Amino acid sequence: MQGLARSADHWPYLAQYLSLEDLGRLNSVSRDFTGASTPKMMERAALDAIRWQEREAVTAEDLQRFRFHPAARDLCRNLPATACLQSLHLARKAIADGNLQATVAPVVPSCRMTSIDLMPLPRDGGIVCWHSSAEDNRPVRYLIRAGQACPYALPDGTMAVPRTAHQGGIGTARQFLVPRPDYWVLARPDHTLCVWRAGTAELADLPQPRPERIRMAAVSGNGRFVAWAAQERNGDCHLKCHDRELDRLCVDRVVSDPQLCQLSVASDGALFVGSQAQGYQFGTEDMLKIVPFLHLPGCLYGLSPDENFLIRSGVYSTDGTGTITLEDRLRGTDIVLLRQRPSRSTAWFARPASMAFSPLNALIAVAYHDGVIQVFDPGRGEMSSCVICPDAELPHARVQMQPLINFDGFNRIHTVFRHFDGTLAVHTLHLGHPGQD
Description:
The structure is a single chain. The chain is an alpha+beta fold. It has a domain at 2-96. Helix content is 14%, strand content 35%. It has helices spanning 2-6, 11-15, 20-29, 31-36, 39-54, 60-63, 80-96, and strands at 100-106, 115-116, 126-132, 139-145, 148-151, 159-160, 171-174, 183-187, 193-197, 203-205, 214-219, 225-231, 237-243, 248-255, 262-265, 271-274, 278-282, 288-292, 301-303, 309-313, 324-328, 334-337, 352-357, 364-368, 372-376, 387-393, 404-407, 412-418, 424-431. A five-stranded mixed sheet has the order 7-23-24-25-26, with no helix packed on it. A four-stranded antiparallel sheet has the order 1-29-28-27. A hairpin with a 5-residue loop joins strand 19 and strand 20 (309-313). The longest helix has 17 residues, at 80-96. The chain is globular and about 65 Å long. The protein starts with a helix and ends in a 6-residue tail after the last strand.
């Protein structure tokens, strides 16, 4: 064993088959392996682990844009993958040590908002907020990132089509190591639908007939599939999903359910529609599956930003208001995010308002309507025992704060919320001392 560990010419052939877990187990067997595990071996294994979790070809150049933990920044230039995983380890250590601190700051410049958009899916620390202009009552949007607000304009002559109706659904965010495009479904004054790739001049009209009573619309992460729901005159809802690559409808159904309020579509064309009573799944061949709910208020039924999880309200008989179930679409397993605290207000405010996934889906944060914030570690604990930080909370409890939460690296969690007077503020939960991040 020691001979193998000290034979450097053997390691290049053996190392290509070793994961981070393998290296950890070898190091626990003998200290000789600690010296034999070179930084380059650790970097390769770390990059493989990141690519497996992100399910895409993350490069060292991609990782250079990541906000590393300060204690890991000495590694980030030459060993960015190792620095990324060390940043996660340091965030988890701060949680285990109880080293958590919160700060609240106003959004700069000061903004007074009437609403906070749940569209598009906020990525990489950005949140879109809007209010009505005092001059002409037209919506004015701002992009808020790291406590700074800047105007966010849609293409001229268009308006955004929401992903939800009747205050259904939940705000979701995911920080990606490789930035992904944001697609919006927009409508022109003549009701023509179009797809806009945010930040570019790419604006494409859909060739389908113009829906006059459109309620909500969604686009897949890759921009290929566009789904929308239009209200029929008899109260039914007409669901369509268009494949832009093949230029055809893959779903064309009328559903007799007046409570449809959530819509999301995956990059493989699978369509997910949620109501207050049940959920509907449509495959690419228009196959229908109906999923009943527990008739809890504010039921959830939609995809996470990376489309890996189906976000649902609690599906077990012991679950109460506030519980979230994440169905892993690839592994077929469930992660239960159980609310640990009673409501600071009424039961209605105990509902989740927004949730965020960290890079690698390593940590999950949930902000509830009553201002409670919980952080979960799905990689540790069994089912509902993965809660690790149940005590953070926003300043208010009995007002419509409309909190939207997101990660900034592993050790900072930002939540934008609305004060009584409509002004916006940012609550930041630091996993570690604020001066250390």
